[in-house]
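User: Teach me something about this protein's shape.
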Amino acid sequence: MSGVPPSAVKKRDLKPDVTEDQAHKLTANSIVQFVNQIVFKQPVTLDITSSKKVVQPLIDALVMEGSYQTKPPCYNTLLVNPDDVTCLHGAPWHAEYTQRIMGGDLPGTNM
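Assistant: First, the predicted structure itself:
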C-alpha cells in the first residue's frame, strides 16, 4: 500500500517484525539463495523450518481433501480402483471421518 493507510487498517493490520528496508534485503537474499540452488545446483542454505511450520497445516489439509496437486488421481478402472500409494483414490478425509460422521460406527464389512 502506498500512502497513509485508513485508520481501521492501521489499527488492525499486522505489525511488522522488521523495517521495510530490512524486509527488502531479506527477501532479495532469499531469492538469490533460491536461484543459486535451482540454477547453479548449490547446496541448500535457506532455513525453511519456520516456513514449514506455518505451511504444514495447509499441506495436511490438501492431502486430506485428496488434492490432485499432491498426487495424480487413480483412474485405472471406471468403478473401483485398487489401493495404490502412487495415486489418490478419493479423499482420505472421507475414509477417515465422513463415513463415521454421516453413518455412525458400523459393525464391520459383513453386515
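Now, about its shape. The chain is about 50% helix and 0% strand. The CA atoms of residues 48 and 54 lie 10 Å apart. If you'd like, I can walk through any region in more detail.
User: That's plenty for now, thanks!
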